[in-house]
């Protein structure tokens, strides 16, 4: 019994080592999708937040509708729409960029609300002081608003980064070969699902722990009263 158990463990370990390079290829795709999607979310989310602060209703209402639509519809539906419906209108994107775009846009809607909360948390006197000093809008945001807003929104942005990483397996539904997709393919060919799926789960767990630690370190590094932007 003991010998048989040891043989099974040895076989599982050898199998795990043999498929690790394959899973690491999928991990690269997972990380690329996460970071590309996060960049889109951070940039587009800021655009959404600033446009919604406009006093011009023809701007705020359409942007508000887009944000609510992105927040209140499933990620999978948006993914299928861009990948399967848009080609009927002559718009075709590679699967990877379709997935990262959808991922980034949906999280941009969430991030825009984080930015809005950060902007609203800024004391009214800061805006009044910038106006009294006759600062331009651009300089006001660069030297007054953003340095105070960034420390406030960092924890929420970090949470969304981790959530985005855990949502990347959804991209496999449009043929993006990420880590979980490869694990399933390995299971289909070898009829052994326990080892590859367990390895993917362990890799995700390690990555989320590393990201959480880095984000906590970044929060301690960034002064809570603001950062200097030139």
UniProtKB/TrEMBL annotation:
- The main location class comes to membrane
Q: Where are the transmembrane segments?
A: 7-25, 31-51, 193-215
Q: Name one GO cellular component term.
A: ATP-binding cassette (ABC) transporter complex
Q: Which domain of life is it from?
A: Bacteria
Keywords from the named record: Amino-acid transport, Cell membrane, Membrane, Plasmid, Transmembrane, Transmembrane helix, Transport
Q: In the UniProt record, does the keyword Isomerase occur? A: no
**A GO MF term:** transmembrane transporter activity
Chain ranges of the ABC transmembrane type-1 domain: 27-216
Q: Name one GO biological process term.
A: amino acid transport
Which InterPro entries does the record cross-reference, listed alphabetically?
A: AA_ABC_transptr_permease_3TM, ArtM/GltK/GlnP/TcyL/YhdX-like, Ectoine_EhuD, MetI-like, MetI-like_sf
Q: How does it sit in the membrane?
A: Multi-pass membrane protein
From the Swiss-Prot or TrEMBL record, state where the protein is found: Cell inner membrane; Cell membrane
Q: Specify whether Cell cycle is a keyword of the entry.
A: no
User: Which family does the similarity line name?
Assistant: Belongs to the binding-protein-dependent transport system permease family. HisMQ subfamily.
Q: Which protein is depicted?
A: Ectoine/hydroxyectoine ABC transporter permease subunit EhuD
Q: Which organism is it from?
A: Bosea vaviloviae
